Amino acid sequence: MEGTKPVNKKLAAALSGGAVLVLALSGCGGDDNEKLDSWAKEVCDAVQPQAKKIESANASIQKETSDNSKPDDVQKTDAKAFQDMSDAYKAIGSAVTKAGPPDVENGEKKQQDAVKELNSISAAYASLKKQVDDLDTKDQGKFADGLKDIATELDKLGKSGNDALRTLEEGEVGQAMSRQSSCKAATAPASTQG
Question: Beta-strand (E) ranges in the chain?
Fold first, then answer.
């Protein structure tokens, strides 16, 4: 039973690093721009429930990995969490599409890059769910190895996932987003025990 313990911890650590990508909102203050503010409000309002979904998916994995969990339970919890994350990123991508380009220089390119990235993060989580579903829970060693691979993937996802979103959220867009109360709520620091 001990075999999966450190791996589970690794999975939880990788997740807490990677899952809240979309909440890396920056900036504060700045000039008001009504058009941009209403764009930011639309995006922030849509992001908030998804951010909560991502956070609770994270929390469920953290919780499942902190007990001495059975492989079956870990598999079930992780698969559901990855599905939830996949859905959440897809929904955020749709929200950014629906909001249209932000009213800034290169707004359209920033918007398209961010949507493309959100959709690819969504697809990556969907593929992780499939990987978890396919793990052999009867064989402790194989299961632990499978989880290790998934943790590695998650780690990569966490590192690569920030760029287009960071580009979308830099400068005026980030400032407008940071003025929205729904974005402030969504960016409450996630707990980083692990």
Answer: none
